[in-house]
Amino acid sequence: MAGRPRRGRELRGQIVLRQSREIVIEITVDKLLAWDPSDARAVWADNTECGAEIDATRSTRPGAVKGGTMIRLVLRLDETALPGPPARILLVSRSRPLDIALEP
User: Which residues form the domain of 44?
Assistant: First the structure.
């Protein structure tokens, strides 16, 4: 990753599956979103971060997503991931930063 994405548009998501270092997140889109995720990082409540690889084959495919739509993001966290679930995911979508707050 070239640099840490700055905080950007805020969305809400929920972890629906967590197995080892893989997490599946469902995100509620509030208004039109150009979805094409890249450069993901997981952040815990104490601000500890780790990189995450996006599984594009299992995540919602890139494109324009209307408000009120649920999208899926599948990530594989780096080996440095903490044992508990992250508090948020920072990523870039079509060059725009997204900050996804995760509900427990």
Answer: 17-103
What letter represents residue 67's amino acid?
G
Fill in the amino acid letter for 15.
Answer: I
Question: Which CATH number characterizes residue 38's domain?
Answer: 2.40.30
Return the DSSP state at 20. T
pLDDT, mean over the chain: 92
Q: What is the pLDDT of residue 8?
A: 78
Q: Helix %, strand %, coil % for the chain, to 5?
A: 0, 55, 45
Establish if 47 belongs to a structural domain. yes
9, part of any domain? no
Residue type, 53: E
